[in-house]
Every structure is written in C-alpha cells, then in structure tokens.
Amino acid sequence: MRNIYTCLVLLCGTTLQAQTVLFTEGFSTGTSAFALNTTDVSSSVGGANTWLINDAYSGGSGEIECLGFPFGFTVPTTATQPAGISDPNGEYLHITSAAAINSGVENCCFAAADGLCTPASNHFAGMNTDVVTTGQGDITLSFWWLCGGGANNYGEVYYSTDGGAAWTLITAPIAQYRNQPGWVEQTITLPAFNEQASLRFGFRFVNGTSLSASDPGFGVDDVVISAAAASSSITTGTIAPLMFCQGAAVNVPFTVAGEFAPTNVFTAQLSDPSGSFSAAVALGTLPGSTAGVINAVLPANTPAGAGYRIRVVGSDPAIEGSANTANITVVASPEAGNDVLLTLCTDATVPDLHTYVDGGALNGEFYYQGLQLLPDLDVPGAYDVLYVVEGLADCPNDTALFDITVAAAPDAGTGVSTTICTYDPALALFSLLTGSPDGSGIWLDPEGAQHPGVFDPAVDAPGLYTYEVEGLAPCETDQAFIAIAVDPCVGIEEIERNTVRWLGQEGSEHVFSLSSTFAVVGIRAFDATGRAIELHERTHRTGELLRIEFHGMPTGLYFVHLEGAEVFRFVHTTR
What we know:
By secondary structure, this protein is an all-beta fold. Helix content is 1%, strand content 44%.
C-alpha cells in the first residue's frame, strides 16, 4: 500500500481528480493512523476475531474445538486487489479469525464462517488522527472494501467530530457492508463532514454468529479523505513592450484567484506565431501559490512573427491561465555575417562592399574611423571598415569587420612606334617608354622570349617588343609595347642587290626578283608601327619572282625582311 501521510487542510494541497486530499492511509509503513481493536461502539478488544494489518491473502486449513469435539475448517484465499488500489496486494486492514491465526492462516476471514461455537462480538478500528475540514467543501471519504458475511455478519463505517469521543454510524449509501467477496471502492460525501475541526472515521465488524455466513471477513484499504478543490484561476497581466528580440528577457506578471498548493509552480508559456498554445514553449517558472512576476526568456531560435501571446499555467492544481490580450512581435536578431578579408587593386573600379557581405543581411551601413563613410579605396593602403546591421526592438546591433588591403596597380608606362636605321647604335628600350613606368619589369622580344631590353639594329629583329610589369594579386600584370622598324635609311629607291630586288606593286601584290641561288629562309612583314603582319598563305614564288599578297591591307608604309637580304621599305596603295 502507499506510505502513510496525513495533513491538515492548511498544510496539504495535493490534488486528486479535482479534489484536495486531506488524509490518506495505505497501511504500508508499519505505523498506522488507525487504532485497532478498541472498545469504541461496544466493541471487544479480543475474542474469536481480531483486526490485523498485513499482506496475507492465501487461505488454508485448521481445526477448532467445539463442545469438546474437534472440527476442521477451511479458509478460502482472499480476492486479489485491482489496479485501482495504490499498491495492489500489499498490506491492508482486515478481520481475521483467532482460530485461523492459531492454525497459521492470517488472511481476511472470521470465526462465524467456521461453523459452530463462535460467540457474538463486535470489533472496531478507528483513526487516531484528527482531520480539519474548516473552510473546505464537499468532504469525501473513499476506501476499498470487501466482506462476504451474512445477515448477522457485516461491516459498518462510523465518523466522529469530537476526536473519537463519540461515533456516528453512516447509513447512506450503505449501512451494512456484506455480500461482496471482491474488492470495490466506496465513496461517501455527507454535509456532516464539512467545517469540522476534528473529523475521524472508523470501521466496525459485527459478528452476530450464523451458520450461513461466508468468508471473507471485513477488509479495508486505501482510506482517503478529500475536499472539493477550490475554483482557481490565473490571469496573465500586461506584457510591455510588445516587441522583443529573439533571446530577450520578458517580465510576465500574473494574478491568481482561489488556492494553489505550496508545491505549485507557475510557468510562463509562449504560443506559436499565430497565437496557438497547442505546442506551447516554456519561458520561465516561479514556484509558489500567489500572484507574482515570472522572469522569462524567449528562446534564441524563436521564429520571427507578429501574433505571439503569453500565458501562465499552474501545476497544483493544473490550470491554464488566460493569455495576455495583445499580440506580441518577435523580431530576428540582426546578422552582419562573418568578418571579411578583402584585397583590391587601385586600377579596378571601387566595388559596392555590400556584395562582399558574408552570410549577413544586406541592409547594413559601413563605418570608417567612426564615421559613416568609406576610405578612398583608390589609394594603396590597409583599411579597417566596420559593417553594422542595426537591430530592431531591443536587439543589439551586429557588426562584421572588413579588413581591406588596397594594392598598387603595376605601371609599365606607355609604348611608342619608332624606326631605327640599320647603322644606329644599340638603344635602351626603357628610354622609349613614356609616363612613369616601374623599373622592375622585364622585356620580351617579338617571339615572346625574354629580352635584355637593349635593341641593337645590327642583331635584333624589328617588330613588337613588350615591357611587362607583374602585378600583385588581385592586380593584373601591366604591359607596354614598343614597335620597332629598321630602315637602311638610303632613300625611297632601294639599292639593287645581286640577290634580291623589289620590282614594285602589281595589283595588291608586291613583287621581288630573286637570284637563282637565293633561298628564301624566312619572310617577316611589319606595318609602320612595327606591328607584325601575318604572311601565312600570302607569299608564293615562281622561278626568280617572289610575290607577297597585301590584299585588304590599308595604304601605308610597310617593311619586308627577307632573311639573308636587306629590309625593304615600300608604300602599299589600294587602287
């Protein structure tokens, strides 16, 4: 059975099916709140029967002497207890025959069921503890019982309102407890139980002897005295302000009506964004039984929304309070994203830094040296720029640091086109560049091979020479171009050579005469700027004539270098 505990109405507030339990006895602790075999209500202390508290349910056989002769008897097994009892088949209060006890049988039975030679007697067991019902309503006594008995053998229930000095038989709804071999629950509610400073209950077994009586005797378990739970309510107060950030603290005031147990805990709950509490979220608690303020906290992952409500619920009794009367808005915490490392080049267009925000909102502002502005990102240097996303309601601002490095773009200067006579001395190409070129670059010849940067017309081929200055990421490499033409510088008409002679223009072709012994190893052509002209499929030789096709080329000065011969300069015209 359950552990014994008793409590006055002012000290106990446990609820059971909308009742406040004032007293309970489960006969399990070894110390009972009932005094057994007292003389109350003309009862016997001893005799053929006695009250016991134990967990015996098994029957057995024995022998009793009557009129000088031994008679055998059999005690049936007591019915097992149902699950409705707090500790089924544990210890319980019951009548047992003294003869059965002498034969080692201690379950619920009585001597009259043995047959003969049993004197009439009554046996009483009553509470030795007062229960105060002052200020309570609908006081109820409930207990589980069984009793076979008969017309002269039955159980009775009594109450006392003076500490057990006098006992009154309860006749409604049952006066005699019999003809019930299995366990059933009995509930009694009488006005006489209300407003009492000293209420007790007792059980009496009446044994008037009978040859037709049957076991079991009178057995009792799970005695409970309770009062109707007071009508209690909770009203959630005004929530202010009505807009909160995720994870914000919220003060939830509330008032109460009725009574709550000292063990009660008030809990503030948050609805979903539509105001439904079907999946309410606990925000904070406050133990106690009176009105107060719960210091609650919104979960950091609360979805943003504008239709939230908050209510307060109680645990003892379990009551759902009314929600606050105005919608609550939860706004998301601002998110500026991750810090950003950014490298720019001075020759690039200054970007919109919002495009580099990493995982944050794009509605923030940039601050440099405490001012809402950006540094001059056309100037090389290192800059710390703060990206700030402002929070709504009580949400704090969130920031991300933009660590910006601006690298200087490389400067190869500006190239030119020039003509050099075959007899000119070697020339430093760098001297031909204009602007402010960086001296750390390299030179490439017309074939793309690295060149020392000094042009010798006696050795180097004319064409496009490139000055290249490598850029540091993200700056791209810069280039400048020098177009060089080499001229014999002897006038328009070329000196006739034994091997090659320019014969002039025929249509769009320029014709050269070659000696029969001259082998054309390579031909290169350039315009006046030194830009190489692709001659693929433009040349063909027939005997001692070499024809070079200039179809589609604009009118202008051109140079043709036949390797092993001179460089020929001529004017091409379109007709």
